[in-house]
Design a protein that fits this description.
By secondary structure, this protein is α/β, with parallel strands linked by helices. The protein contains 15 helices and 15 strands. The strands form 3 sheets. The chain has an 11-stranded mixed β-sheet with strand order 1-3-2-6-8-7-14-15-11-9-10, with helices on both faces. Strands 4-5 form a two-stranded antiparallel sheet. It has a two-stranded antiparallel sheet with strand order 12-13.
């Protein structure tokens, strides 16, 4: 029997029943990686010797009757997480040889849950792209079309899952970095509520692995089924033991509803700042039709929705003010000069990005206060709705674009070009206020590429969009194996 594409949940059952061993699962995964990853290039740092040893220990634990959530399950980890003894570079050549001596919190939690880590997955330079390529490890290809990106910055993890390289993966998200790769590769991902999962050790090279309250970024699970997302989120969720003095554990509210017919859903397919491509619009409508068919209450408009244009501007300001915080002084001063030269009439997103890069602390405080107004508006919306369904990006996976000047890149939406970073506005809808969002497969484009949508839920009610994802998976289907396989197969 082939095990590589089975859900982690089913593998757990098979392991406990003695139908398969962790060593067998691990060897099958390694063989698949060694055969198929030459063309996909998802696993940038293999760790097969330690994986085999962990699998043997898992089998011994299973034989003793131990019961841990991921005992014996092969998984992968985004390169940006510290794993003792393995390089953490964030794709930056100057840190090619940096090897941390301590695991990130989430890597430790995977180990405590019994998971078998196969290795690390590829990322873009500094995690700052919607693709996954860098000078150290090269380019990761989309398993559905090798000429296209798997997304970023958790693109290696999504490509690995779609290729059968492990049952689960962990990534991170600030600009859709969990959700966009899931959308591009046809898998599942969950951006948790801001602060739900401790990020310590998911830190750029040479940075101290200390507890921190991140402004926008989160760490979260990726999988091939909705239920597997919940399985992994339960392992990841909880405060940092260095801050609260407890090892783990958090109690999230149950999902608001168990049946599709009880959900109240707001469906969005238009944004005032960027068009929605026809393939993505069709996927949103497919989900909307399934909700209506299942008896859910579906609305297409609501006056309670916080203004999307203001939300996007605020997100861009917060995102880019943080992204340049550690720039060299000379580079920062050059940005200040460029920003000072902008016309006051220029309210484009490009201008917003540049102004955000040179925010003063006073500017940031004002933006943060506006964010709190948005959060309150979302609370009011979620008194009337349970979930908001909307795009993740305006298009399916796009062709590789390695133009080093990201501001010169363009995204093609149904034949018309737009600034590359403008596509972030959909990801920012959940990121800016810190809301949970679950990315689910929702069909295929006319070219056969996967298309996903996101389910945004109320803050700290992560189980609500996760439950809806599970119900939609039953209704419209979920992950499918890529039809384009590697040339080596």
């Amino acid at each position: 029997m082939e095990w590589s594409f089975l859900a982690a949940e089913k593998l757990v059952v098979a392991l406990r029943a003695g139908e398969v061993s962790s060593v067998e699962l691990t060897e099958e995964a390694i063989a698949r990686i060694e055969r198929d990853d030459k063309v996909i290039n998802a696993i940038c740092v293999p760790d097969f010797d330690r994986a085999r040893a962990a699998a043997r220990r898992a089998d011994q634990a299973l034989a003793r009757g131990e019961d841990r959530p991921l005992l014996g399950i092969p998984v992968t980890v985004k390169e940006s997480y510290n794993i003792a003894g393995l390089p953490t570079t964030w794709g930056m050549p100057q840190y090619h040889d940096f090897v941390p001596d301590e695991d990130a919190v989430q890597v430790s939690r995977l180990g405590a849950a019994g998971a078998v880590v196969l290795g690390k997955t590829n990322v873009p330079l500094g995690l700052q792209d919607l693709q996954s390529f860098n000078e150290i490890y090269g380019t990761t290809n989309n398993p559905w079309d090798h000429d296209r990106t798997p997304g970023g910055s958790s693109g290696g993890s999504a490509a690995a899952l779609a290729s059968g390289f492990g049952a689960l993966s962990i990534g991170s998200d600030i600009g859709g970095s969990l959700r966009t790769p899931a959308h591009f590769c046809g898998v599942y991902a969950h951006k948790p509520t801001l602060g739900l999962a401790a990020p310590r050790g998911m830190v750029a090279p040479l940075g101290p692995a200390l507890p921190t309250d991140l402004d926008l970024a989160v760490v979260g699970p990726m999988a091939r089924t909705a239920r597997d997302l919940t399985l992994l989120l339960d392992v990841m969720a909880g405060p940092d033991p260095l801050t609260l003095g407890v090892a783990h554990g958090v109690t999230l509210p149950p999902a608001r509803h168990e049946r599709l017919c009880d959900f109240r859903v707001l469906v969005l397919d238009e944004h005032p700042l960027i068009p929605t491509g026809s393939a993505v619009r069709a996927a949103v409508n497919r989900v909307a039709d399934a909700l209506v068919d299942g008896g859910a209450r579906v609305e297409r408009h609501s006056p309670l929705l916080p203004d999307p244009t203001d939300a996007a501007v605020l997100y861009i300001q917060l995102l880019f003010s943080g992204s340049v915080a550690r720039f060299p002084v000379a580079a920062y001063e050059e940005l200040r000069t460029r920003a000072a030269g902008l016309s006051a009439d220029d309210q484009s997103l490009d201008a917003t990005r540049l102004r955000g890069m040179v925010f003063t602390h006073r500017d940031w405080i004002e933006a943060n206060n506006r964010r709190e107004l948005h959060r309150h508006a979302w609370r009011q919306l979620f008194a009337e709705f349970d979930v908001v369904v909307c795009p993740i990006t305006p298009t399916p996976a796009f062709p590789h674009d390695h133009n080093p000047d990201l501001l010169q890149r363009r995204i093609d939406i149904d034949g018309v070009e737009y600034p590359f970073f403008d596509q972030l506005v959909w990801a920012g809808m959940a990121t800016m206020p810190g809301l949970p969002a679950t990315a689910i497969p929702a069909g295929r484009s006319p070219e056969g590429l996967p298309v996903g949508v996101q389910l945004i839920g109320p803050m700290f009610e992560d189980r609500t969009p996760l439950r809806l994802a599970e119900l939609l998976e039953q209704k419209i289907g979920g992950f499918q194996r890529p039809t384009q396989r590697s040339h080596a197969e």
